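User: I'll paste a sequence; please echo it back and then give the predicted structure.

Assistant: Echoing your sequence first, then the prediction.
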Amino acid sequence: MSIGGFAAEGTWPILLTNGSGFSDEVKDVIDDYLALPGSAGKALIVGGPAAVSTSIEDYLLDEAVGFAVTDVRRIGGADRSHTNFLVNLWSATDAAATFSYVFNTDNIALASGVSPWDALAASGWAAGKNAHIVLVPASGSSIWSATLMATASGFNDGFTNQDVNVYLLGGKSVMPAAALTAAAGAANSDLTATLTGCAEGGNTATLMLSGRLKDATGPGSPSEETQFDAMGGVSANGDRFELNGVDQIASASKLPTLTDLGVLTGVASRQMFLVTLGGSQTFAEDDVLEFEGWVEDSTYGGHKATRSISAASCEVSADETAPTVVSARAYPGATAGADSADARIEVRFSEPVALTLSAGTVTNSSNSDSNSATATATAIGSSGTNYMITFDASDTMATWDALDVVVIDASAVSDLAGNTMDDPISLTVAADSTAPVLTVSAVECNHATGSNYSMAKSPLTITAGSTGKFGGAQGAGFKMSVVNQRGILVPTVDINETTRTITVTADTGYHTPNDVAAVMAQNWQTNAVLGNWSVGASSTLLAATTSAVSATGGASSCSVDFSTNENVVVDDGTYSLGGGLSGFGTVALATSGVTYTASTTALTTSNLVRGSLTFTVNTAVLGSGSIVVSATDGIANLNDKYVALPLDITLS
């Protein structure tokens, strides 16, 4: 039932067995077929050993018949549905390695897995339509049929020029309508979108998707993320946004830009985006910004979308709410300059604001003195809510002492809609003796684009697949052994994920790495989509190991985001991995800092003061460990109190 369409495409005969042995009738048909000029000389066994006896393999591999191990392939699952799943997956991805054709995912036919007659009758039709036949139970869906539908959708990675057509084989008594509903549900990966944060006087909004865009590690090209940028903000072809019904496009100098906020917010990357209006535009009351989304089967940039993203809109309402202070701190010191020895103010607001700190707007109420020159408000980060206030070197304002009370006029602070604060900001000057606290806000590891672990005993090399469950650092700790067993016809490969061992048992005087690859493909360890391992091609005879060979060379890249309880100075010092990660990789700030000297370097130096941090960790292992920071040139608050303890992290 599972192989009918594929066999018809290749004009292969299908031989049925009862599972208990190898009958003379089947043997005679095999012999007659092999005697024909131009016979394939290859055999595909569909079903596990309980369904199709291993005596057939033994016969085919016997010297009298002469099949090579690589020419005999078994595809067998735990039951009929599982085998059907594996056959369809193989014919869509790996069949080209053995045969000259594959079945793509343009057409999928659902047939009863209980009554096989419809599937058998449709074999010729399936070959003509290049269609997969998916067996489903009476309920209309199984874990394997649902997984296959979802996997077939994944082949396209969101963008190809394919349409996927689904057919039902048989009447309603054997193929319920629920089968089509279940198939559509399994394949559906549509996303919804929300657009928020359109504020009067502002120029940004936040676009949030219900799931992540697919990256470039999948089989599709280009990645959804690349295509999304092209439609929405980075490329001149973008046309997915409208402001008050007007396309925001490059030709009108209005193309918006999209910034991935995943690293900054703790939300997974490729899911949350900052949309910034183009052409120096700002929102006014009653403006409507619309994201038009994209539609399944529509073509963008030469690629057809196989899932949809819903439209979303954001209307600007009148802003009559005054900004408020979230946190604030005044540091003592001399007023001249802008380093950590000088008087300064650190303040975070509830919304983006503008500060106008002209002379007389900042007062030391303890001695009735005020700033004689305009103070400088330096934005920390890009949110517009976080500022450091410093004073000009010529300012005659008196030195601040601890317990002095410093006041900022309410009129000096206004939000994007022009609302000023209701009350002045009053701060008691205080020295700070406590180091800042850093908390992990998000961790994201990419295992698919790093290097993969490999085990080698020449000529055999087994390497973890980049998209499998052991890609990157996930393959750490595996070992491989090659055991010589004379007279064995087919190599065996035992993969124990608990002990992290791979044991190859083979006749080293007969078998090659190509034979091992053929055996691993039978249990789907080397499948193009689901596979965990790849075997290097070689026709050289295997060699036994005297001791297990350890895997080497794997690594993953992880992004670790930290939030801080206060603004910090990022000194361009040295950082290392500690704990369980010690000695297995490197760590660095994603955006490096500058060389900082306490009480000397100006805090207004670009890229020095930050409200959050991101580290990039390149590691050969996963698990718990720490980032070790220097207590003298690492991370400090604005009063030069350095973080001294390691920052605990967990990578997975």
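The first strand starts at residue 43 and ends at 46. The radius of gyration is 33 Å.
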